[in-house]
Amino acid sequence: MPVPKKRTISQPDLTKGESAEGKMPEEQEFRQHLRALAVSAVRVLIEKVMCEELDQCVGAQWGECTPNRKGYRNGYYQRDLITSTGRIENLSVPRDREGQFHTQVFERYGRYEPEVAEALTEMFVSGTSTHKVGSVAEKLMGATPSSSAVSRLNQTLTEQYEILRVRPLLSHYRILYLDGIHFRVRHGTQTDSTIILTALGVDLEGNKDVLALRACAEEDKDGWSCLLQDLRNRGVTEIDLIVTDGHDGRTTQQSVLCLPRHCANVVSSINNAMS
Asked: Mean pLDDT, 10 residues at a time, over the chain (275 residues)?
């Protein structure tokens, strides 16, 4: 009979209130934070899709002269969008001089938000592709976008995700949760199971944020070692409490060495407790 994972918490010099926060979040909470992180790309996606809509409406891209042009651009106005993860403020909505352009994106996003959010999350953890981006753009535009439009959107989202992936982190976090989240990722007509190694940090003000992700075939020491090294490279120098479970990489000294010395003591105490 398989032995269930044992949840273990190291508690170096923490108050009772702080130690209570050391409980490992459920997988659903990890997924919610991953989705919130992915939805941060919604602003970029929606604004780009609206520009593609306007291109179709006026019959020309920005600065392009065509015999089929039906109008001209006239700047932008600001509008907010309410999503399940909060309000996105001051979205830049393009407009034309004649007032003929009316975007469908806001209405269609409200209708397809769960599918769009799930697709963005999947792209965040497994990478963008023209197929995935084209599917999302079609839902938001209500029509099949051109191959050039899909290519531009794909490039924009790829750049956005790269910025999020390498963004600098705070130097000090109160708690770092480490867990492997199972995702079903679609590749065309096939669906595969993928483990996403996830680092969820709690800063000194109590805010939670996904700090790093790494797709792996399994939870092994090499994967966790690379993820922890990524945290260090991006500026993390102090962690008060690290919470993990019984994954195979928990006792490797390679993972410990990827963190600063004072963090290594915390990891070491977790490893000893779980031995």
From this structure: 41 43 77 77 90 88 75 91 85 92 93 88 80 90 88 90 91 92 70 83 93 84 88 93 70 41 43 39
Name the residue among 141, 160, 155, 130 with its Cα closest to residue 55.
141
Residues 6 or more apart from 55 whose CB is under 8 A from it?
Answer: 61, 62, 149
The pair of structure tokens assigned to 172 is 């000090």
113: three-class secondary structure by DSSP: helix
Beta bridge partners of 246: none
CA of 157: how far to CAs of 42, 121, 236, in Å? 9, 12, 26
- The three-point CA angle 147-152-153 to 5° equals 95
Q: Is 263 exposed, middle or buried (0-12, 13-18, 19+ CB in 10 A)?
A: buried
The confidence score (pLDDT) of residue 66 equals 74
Angle between helical axes of 105-126 and 42-58 (0-180°, round to 10): 130
Which residue spans within 50-171 are E strands per DSSP?
73-83, 86-96
Element (H, E) at 187: strand 172-187
Looking at residue 235, what DSSP letter applies?
T
Q: Under a CB-based contact definition with an 8 Å cutoff, are residues 154 and 219 in contact?
A: no
- Pairing mode, strands 238-244 and 172-187: parallel
Q: What is the pLDDT of residue 58?
A: 87
